[in-house]
Predict the 3D structure of the following.
Amino acid sequence: MKLSVIGCGYLGAVHAAAMASIGHDVVGVDVDPAKIAALSAGTPPFHEPGLPELLEQAIASGRLRFTTDISEVHDAAVHFIGVGTPQRKDGGGADLTYVDGAIDALLPHLAPGSLVAGKSTVPVGTAARLATAVHAAGARLAWNPEFLREGFAVKDTLEPDRLVYGVASDDDAADDVAVLDAVYAQTLETGTPRLVTDYATAELVKVAANAFLATKISFINAMAEIAEVTGADVTTLADAIGHDARIGRRFLNAGVGFGGGCLPKDIRAFTARAEELGRGESVAFLKNVDEINLRRRQRVVDLVVDSFEGQVHGKRVAVLGLAFKPDSDDTRDSPALDVAVRLHGLGADVVCTDPQAIDNARRQHPQLEYAATTSEALNDAEAVVLVTEWREYRDLDPAAVADLVARKVVIDGRNCLDSDAWRARGWQFHGLGRP
Ligand code: UGA
């Protein structure tokens, strides 16, 4: 099938490459010429494992190309909208400028009967509003939310847990379902569950899923706070409650909390939308979820400051990790970067490093000092703060690190190090929610 993907960021670029890899003829469109040039050359402008290989194969097959010219989508049967919906500058709501802009740009080029399939995360009610214009142009609108995780984006796109189609409540909706079934035929053949819903349900499925995940993380981080005043160990607690299949161990890793371009802004946008709908009280707990999450960043900072008995000014602190999670170079709302910025703000001599995210971090915070390698960052450090659990940091040898630093103090902001091994080598070790 001929497909277009409007918006070629973390979501759209992966979707475009994945759709081409399963045999579709895909054109990816973005307003950013640098992004389009990089993708056309097979080198994604962001770090995503497996994407360069997928891009290269798809481009070589002749089934994938990228352009800044939206008119090139005119013969596509399905147009996926994968543009960003960041947090508004003036509040917690979602900024729909890019979604509205994409639809406006697309309208003049829509072939009659073609389908626009929204993938962006939008406030409930958005699809119904956009459908009016799309249907008036002789095309159709569906909402097909995306659940991919950065770092696993290729796998999540090709082998999703489920497919959700939010379709119009009219007689033509069955045709829209058939079109999406044709797009995802290969995925459906493997038995992937597929749920057909109305627009509102599809939009809510996405934000509800992210709200649940955020709540799960903040729940365990709240337990970490209680553990900290009782001497309990939150990691053992998570293991123990996680054995209950109804609870499950995944997303129960206590630490510096969640960040990224999705969870934080999605719970804020959900809260703002619920308030607009007069149902603010229904999701009022998400404000607590957000607050618990942000408190954990300060907790890491406090542990560093306390290790210097309050005198952090001028102290050399190595911050390991800048990305919001490993296997990503994304620093949007990154807890790791936030910790570095807060420590720098307190006058600490902060040296940060990350295997992939230095460039993005530097663009956001040029005032910080960046080291290209881990050993450079660790050199003469008086405290080591691990805030993104890259494999390279998890595997650090406490004896080897001890030879580099000036003072053996480590704060494990992701509870990913073996505390006994570090203590055995003479380190003062601090975890989150751990004795
Ligand atoms: C999240 C969802 O997991 C995806 O399903 C969704 O499609 C995506 O948002 C989106 O809306 O586009 P992502 O932001 O890539 O995916 O990252 P996650 O793996 O969910 O991690 C989010 C944050 O939670 C990271 O900062 C991570 O370090 C943190 N986290 C995760 C914890 O602190 N503890 C955990 O146990 C798990």
User: Anything to note?
Assistant: Residues 2-197 form a domain with the Rossmann fold fold (CATH 3.40.50.720). The longest strand covers residues 2-6. The pocket of uridine-5'-diphosphate-glucuronic acid is lined by residues 121, 146-150, 210, 213, 217, 251-253, 255, 257-260, 262-263, 324-325 (CB under 6 Å).
